[in-house]
Design a protein that fits this description.
194 residues, 3-methyladenine DNA Glycosylase II, Chain A, domain 3, Alpha-Beta Plaits, two-stranded antiparallel sheet, 5 helices, 4 strands, 31% helix, elongated
């Protein structure tokens, strides 16, 4: 009788502890790899593809898996590479030859008079910073442009130029509307409907 009761107690304990472990596995489940999220947070989020991956998240996944070196991010440059090296506890590596970052941030502009509306630049832009339609002129939304320059080689008319990006607090300043904007003639009186 005592052996049977011991077996029942052990089976009961196994079921209870199994239920607790199963609940804990569901309740405290970690979504994804936290290392991937940390590496992705260090990358500049330009989604430019210059690292030979389609975006920053796939590149972060490849770094975390040990499939990619930490020195391929052109927009992030040396600073991002050193931050990733510190996070992973590895030695910093020099940037790949030909992948050195430009000394200052840039954006692109389209000479709209030369644009033929082919939409090739829109398709090449990883951050949707180009506005336009087929057979219509295109323009760049400067605030969204990351300066990845992927639109330049696909343009058949070479109407895209690189310019330095406006940085600093002076770039935030917007002119006030002129005084004539607020003239009486432009104010429409409200009429109440009864």
């Amino acid at each position: 009788m005592s052996i049977l009761s011991a077996v029942i107690i052990l089976i009961s304990m196994g079921l209870i502890f199994g239920a607790i472990l199963g609940y804990s596995a569901v309740k405290f489940k970690v979504e994804g790899n936290p290392l991937v999220e940390q590496i992705d947070a260090l990358l500049p989020q330009t989604q430019c593809g210059q690292c030979d991956y389609p975006g920053c998240k796939p590149y972060a996944e490849a770094i975390a898996a040990g499939e990619a070196p930490i020195n391929k991010c052109v927009p992030g440059g040396e600073d991002t590479m050193e931050d990733i090296a510190d996070l992973l506890g590895v030695d910093p590596e020099p940037l790949e030859p030909g992948k050195e970052a430009s000394p200052e941030p840039t954006v692109v502009i389209i000479r709209e008079a030369d644009c033929i509306g082919c939409t090739k630049c829109i398709q090449a832009c990883p951050v949707d910073a180009i506005l336009g339609a087929a057979k219509q002129m295109h323009t760049i939304i400067a605030q969204n442009c990351t300066g990845c320059d992927l639109c330049i080689p696909v343009c058949p008319t070479d109407c895209i130029d690189i310019i330095p990006a406006k940085t600093g607090i002076a770039a935030w300043h917007h002119e006030k509307p002129s005084e004539q904007f607020y003239t009486q003639s432009q104010i429409i009186p409200v009429q109440w409907v009864q």
